[in-house]
Amino acid sequence: MNTYQPMNCDLYDYLEIACMRGYRLHIELHDGSRLEAKALTTRTASSKEEFLLLESADGQQEIRLDQLLAITPLDANAQFGRVVFSDAVCSF
Fold it and tell me: What is the domain count for the chain?
């Protein structure tokens, strides 16, 4: 896998909302694959790579955040619509 590129801080907020609300998401990845899963939480590895933990019909899985192209909540009353993630990084 390529060197990890941190996500834009503003976009990270959408993932936090999705996890707090337990949204089911339609997820699009940079490699062209798609899946539907419930957002559970995010985690940061000791290597500083960040992951989204999901629950789908196939069980739990993690997706490295820089692999996300877009997420769309499938819940009727979601607080946001489709979010496209860019290559911008979060800088502190």
Answer: 1
Alpha helix ranges (H) inside the chain: 9-21
For residue 86, which amino acid is it? S
Segment 52-64, tens digit of pLDDT = 999 998 899 999 9
Residue 76 has what DSSP assignment? T
Residues 6+ apart with CB under 8 A from 66: 2, 4, 5, 6, 7
2, part of any domain: no
**Using CB atoms within 10 A of its CB, is residue 15 exposed (0-12), middle (13-18) or buried (19+)?**
buried
Q: pTM here?
A: 0.86
Name the token pair of 55.
Answer: 């629950």
How many residues belong to the chain? 92
What are phi and psi for residue 11, nearest 5 degrees? -75, -30
Identity of the residue numbered 17: I
Q: Can you read off the two tokens belonging to residue 52?
A: 């989204």
